[in-house]
Amino acid sequence: MQVHPQALCESEHVGQGTRIWAFAHVMRGAVVGADCNIGEGVFVEAGAVVGDRVTLKNQVMVWDGVTIADDAFVGPGVIFTNDSRPRSPRMPRVRERYREPANWRRPTRVERGATIGAGAVVLPGLTVGAFALVAAGAVVTRDVKPQQLVAGNPARPRGWVCECAGRLNEELFCQECGAVYRWAGEQLVPQGPPHV
Q1: Domain 1-161 sits in which CATH superfamily?
Q2: What is the pLDDT, as a whole number, of residue 122?
Q3: What are the backbone dihedrals phi and psi of residue 103, each rounded to the nearest 5 degrees, phi first?
Q4: Percent residues over pLDDT 90 in the chain
Q5: Is 24 exposed, middle or buried (0-12, 13-18, 19+ CB in 10 A)?
Q6: Which helix (H) or strand (E) covers residue 26, if one does?
Q7: Could you give the CA distance from residue 182 to residue 19 in angstroms, rounded to a whole number?
Q8: Does the CA dihedral 89-95-100-105 come out positive or negative?
Q9: DSSP letter at 135?
Q10: Residue 44: which residues within 8 A CB-CB, separation 6 or more?
Q11: CB 48 within 8 A of CB 65
Q12: Reduced to 3 states, what is the DSSP secondary structure of residue 97?
């Protein structure tokens, strides 16, 4: 593990080969896997879980209850949220609700290989499916299916992407790597190796 002298890493659960850059803060109780890149100004709160080979670009905010699976890419300035009805826990009227995290925390999951574009906001309690692609600036208000491309505010489906992140055409062919997919129930599955 490599921690920049101006970063703060309080967690004892950071994997081998992970780099944490200047002004990043990984709190005690956060879990970060191996071979990750934690960019400048990233905040990873206690209770967050980051898998192996994950890239968190500069200024990403990962809160308690957020899980990011292996090989995901989170672009600069992405904000995750974990409370659908936030109030200051110091306010007397809601103080009791905030005594127990199960009363307010809504877990969010980013599945393997997914990409969250720069400046996107992911609302609490959602799942971004494996190899999905959330466009820059999107506001994610509902689950994103595996390999689905979503964009806008609120984020809406705009098509499908290959595991390489190339856009699939109507025949489910990736012009980037040549992979061909087919539907198996509600899931895209590759028909064979890419045609290079």
Answers
A1: Hexapeptide repeat proteins (2.160.10.10)
A2: 98
A3: -75, -20
A4: 94
A5: buried
A6: strand 25-26
A7: 38
A8: negative
A9: P
A10: 11, 24, 25, 26, 27, 30, 32, 38, 50, 56, 62
A11: yes
A12: helix
Question: Would you mind telling me the total number of residues written for the chain in this entry?
Answer: 196
pLDDT greater than 80 at residue 25: yes
d(CA 193, CA 46) in angstroms, rounded, equals 40
Spatial distance between the Cα atoms of 38 and 142, rounded to a whole number of angstroms: 26
* One-letter identity of residue 21: W
For residue range 53-62, list pLDDT tens digits in order: 999 999 999 9
* pTM listed for this prediction: 0.95
For 88-97, the pLDDT digits (tens) are 999 999 999 9
**Residue 97 CB partners (closer than 8 Å, separation 6+):** 87, 103, 104
The tokens for 168 are 């699939």
What are the tokens at 108? Answer: 């969010």
191: tokens are 């028909």
Q: Give, in degrees to the nearest 5, the angle at Cα 24 between 18 and 27.
A: 85
Give the torsion through C-alpha atoms of 65, 128, 72, 28, to 10 deg: 0
Structure confidence at residue 194 (pLDDT): 65
| Average pLDDT taken over every residue of the chain | 96
CATH code 2.160.10.10 region(s) in the chain:
1-161
